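Morning, I've got a small favour to ask if you have a moment. It would help a lot if you went through both lines with me. I owe you a coffee for this, so here goes:
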Amino acid sequence: MVERQAEILRRGGHEVELIGRSSDDLVTQALPQFRAGWRVVSGGGHDPLRELNAFRPDVVHVHNLFPNFGTKWLKNAPAPVVATIHNFRAVCANGQLFRNNTVCTDCIVGSSLSALKHRCYRNSYLATIPLAVTTMGGLQRNDLFEEARRLIVMNDTSAAILVSAGAAEEKLRILPHSVDPNESSGEVKTIDRWFVASRLSPEKGVLDLVKLWPAEHCLDIAGSGPESVNIEALGHPSVTMLGSLESSDLRSRLPGYLGLIFPSKWLETQGMVVMEAFAAGAPVIAYNGNPIAKLVDAEGVGERYSTGFELAAALTKVKASRDLLGERARRLYQRDYTDQMWLSRIERIYEDVLSV
C-alpha cells in the first residue's frame, strides 16, 4: 500500500523518496521479537535522518515504524510529520484490540498489564513486556503521536478509539486508501455464488461464518492461514476453498459474484477487499462486529448480520436487489476510493501542515 501511494503521488507530479526496512532483514538476529519491543520502549532502532536530510522533503509521511525504525529522530525531522495509523499497536500489544475471539479494550480502559497476563504479543510473555510498558499512560507518551502534525486513520471508529486513548482530536484526519478500478471487459454474467477473500485467522471470522452458512447458498473462500484446516474439517457441502489468489485474479472474479461476505470480528481499520468489491459493483454483507457493517448500512450497499438467521435473511435480500446495490457500490467507489480522490485529499492534508 505504501509503494502504491508513493506511485500515485509521483503520477500527481510530486517527488517521492521511499525509505523502508523489511522485518525479514532482522530474522537472523537473536531474540528478534524481544529486541523489536525494546526498540519501541527506547525509541532506538534505525534512524532515517541522514536519508531525509539528503532528500530535503517538504513533508515526512510515516506509515509504520514498528519494529524496524526508532522514534527519537522525529523531534529532529527536517519537515512536518504526517503519520498514517494502520493498526492499534500504539495502544494494544497485538495491534488489533482483539482477544479470545472478541474485541478487547482492556489496555485502554484499564491497565496494559492485561497484555502481560494474556501474552498478547506473539503469545510470548517476554516479547510482550516492552510493548506493555510502552502503552502505559496512553498516547501522551508516544513520540509519533506527539510529534506528528496530522494523524491519518481510515475510518471514524479508529479515530474515536485513538481519541479515547489520548490522541489529540484536532490532529486526526479520516482518509481511506484507494483501490484500482475494476475494468472487467464486456458484460459479466453473475453466478449464483457468494465470495469471501481473507486471511484465515480467528480475528477474520471466516470459520465462524462457515459454521453459520446456510446449505442452500454456495460460498467460495479465497485465502490461507492458521484456520484453513479447521474450516476444511467442517466439510460444509456448500463451501469451496479456493486457496490464495493473486490480486488480479481476485479483481477479475469479484464482478461475477452475488456479493462479498465480510465476516471480520476485529475493528478493521479499513478492509481493502471491501473497496475492491465496491469497484467491482458487488454488494457487501458484513458482520456487525466490524466498522464495515456501519459503512455498508449507511451507504445502502448491502446488509449486516450477527446470527445465522440474520445471515440467511441478508443473503436472500441482497440477492433480490443485487443490481441496485451493485450500482450504489460503484457510485460509492467513484466518490470515495479512486486514486484521484485519494490524491486530492492527501494534497489538502499536506498543504494544511505546511501552512502552519
